[in-house]
Amino acid sequence: MKSSNLMELMQQMSLTRRQLLGTSAMLGAAALMPRQAWSAPDFKGIELNLMVIQPHVTGGRIVADEFGKATGAKVNVLPVPNDQIQQKATLDVQSGSNVYDVIDYWYCLLGALAEDGTVVDVTDRIAKDYAAADFLPSIYDPYTLYKGKRWGVPYDGDSHVLFVNTEILERSGQKPPTTWDEYLATAKVITEAETANGIFGTALLGVKNPFMIGCSYTNRLAGLGGDFFDASGKPLLDSEVSIAAVQAMLNVAPYALPTPLETGFEQGLPAFLSGKAAMIEFWTDLGVNAQDPAMSQIVDKWTVVQMPIGGANKQHRGSLDAGFGLAISAGSKQPDAAWELV
Asked: Which domains does the chain have, with CATH numbers?
């Protein structure tokens, strides 16, 4: 694929990802909110600042516009890089700048944000406006709960699935893997058979970023039946299962798109969509791109399966690879209006 075409492809994919996350997550979540009897308050003259990560800008603007139409408030959407959520939000409060009213947080950061006093306790607000049954049990506590209190409202729950190029697998007599051992064997067979043609068994996202190498590790940890912590909160990173998850990544590395530690979205996605990688772990919206002739060379040549399992674990487990919630900043001068926006 020519470099100019590759850059165009990545720009299209980036836009599609923003649109999907923005519309499907923020707008979709807003549309499904259980507060059906909500009566729009009059917030004319009130101005709120909504911090969102860059992929959520489109959805944030849609929500801001609809909220403004309903309440009269003005909502400014302020984007920040994915890896600067905690830094920006905490510095805003601790410095006294108090720019942000609502924070779009990655759920893994919630404990730190609460501990530092960056976000406010919304336990009573949630109890008043929601029921526990309004939320998916698998994400309600992980995305909102810290030290017995709730600090935000979840709206975007993300897990990976395994995308497979059926044409490549069929050429090598392989089937979509259901276990991590099968995944390794499939990647090995395909790479050894097709590497001369620039085709590899898998694209392993290994760039040192929690959304990439972190997700790749977590997928294996969950599939092997492991956890990050035991019931008492003690870290389990040195457990047999945790070590096995790392080893599973090392084992497949020789048969992955070179080189895993340098493979991120910009390398792995074009490889899969151009038919140069037989498998990739990713969020479900990749299916939209894979079936779009303007972006994909594998239309109707792919499928998706659950993440593999392995070890003593016999049950598919989806890891919470990303996911976001909305919280009120402790620096907000309009906490009631901020809550209504949440």
From this structure: 15-158+323-341 (3.40.190.10), 159-305 (3.40.190.10)
